[in-house]
Amino acid sequence: MSNNTPEQKDSQNSKQRNPKTMKKKQTKLWFLIPLILFFGLVVILYMRLGKPTDIVTNTALERPVPTFELPLLADTTRTITNDNLPDKPFLLNVWGSWCPTCVIEHPFLMQLEERGVDIVGVNYKDEIGNALSYLNRGGDPFSMSIQDSLGQFALDLGITGAPETFVVDGDGIIRQHIVGEVNEANWQQRVKPCLTVLNEANKNNDSPDLIQVEEMCK
User: Fold this and answer.
1) Full-prediction pTM beyond 0.85?
2) Checking DSSP bridges between strand 90-95 and strand 69-72, what pairing results, if any?
3) Alpha-carbon torsion (26, 30, 35, 38), positive or negative
4) How far, CA to CA in Å, does 85 sit from each of 16, 80, 113, 121, 173?
5) Element (DSSP H or E) covering residue 168
6) What is the residue-level pLDDT of the chain in tens, covering all 218 positions?
7) DSSP assignment, residue 63?
8) Closest CA to 65 of 38, 35, 101, 89
9) Which of 83, 127, 168, 172 has the highest CB neighbour count under 10 A?
């Protein structure tokens, strides 16, 4: 049983209802919210570290390369269309000189070009001068680069950013979509097996076996 007098109880209730005290508590809560959000973001980023590049299902998969009519980066007086794309399996790589991950990826694309891999570039939302300087500095791994300054072609492909790469078969059908950089790890594990299946079918003048494509290009 409480021994507090009525006066003491009133004093305690008054303290509990004190606006200054309540305001201090609210201020502390608002101060904690940014810290909670920050630590949550750190946890999410930490969980993504070291994970391989995802190969995702996209609306562009198993469909022809979208119809386009765009200038050639090296000579903007020339117009490139689907008819100018290789008639054998190739990589379609979306890149930009402004893209940090593209810079990281670029040396490996140069290695692939040396290995005989045909890579068509899509220069995405870039300034011509910056793009050409980028290739002059780091080398040009592309058999040609299409200038997609407005980004509409890339949007039709279904990209979310750059770099992104599409494996296209000899019939112009997109068989694989890589989000992020192509590197030695995902090249050996995913991209090369897919491209090998497509190349074998192309050498035999045949359409690729869909069961093999599903297994090797997933």
Assistant:
1) no
2) unpaired
3) positive
4) 76, 8, 16, 11, 12
5) strand 164-168
6) 555 555 555 555 554 555 555 555 555 556 556 666 666 554 444 444 444 444 444 457 899 999 999 999 999 999 999 999 999 999 999 999 999 999 999 999 999 999 999 999 999 999 999 999 999 999 999 999 999 999 999 999 999 899 999 999 999 999 999 999 999 999 999 999 999 999 999 999 888 889 999 999 98
7) S
8) 89
9) 168
Question: Phi-psi bin for 62: left (phi > 0), alpha (psi -120 to 50), beta?
Answer: left
Which of helix, strand or coil describes residue 196?
A: helix
**Structure token pair of residue 28:** 């502390």
| CA atoms of 62 and 172, how far apart (whole Å) | 10
CA angle 179, 105, 196 (to 5 degrees): 65
Cβ–Cβ < 8 Å for 153, 66? yes
Residue carrying the six token digits 């899509």:
122
- Sequence letter at residue 104: I
The residue whose two tokens read 């045909």 is 118
CA distance 133 to 114: 21
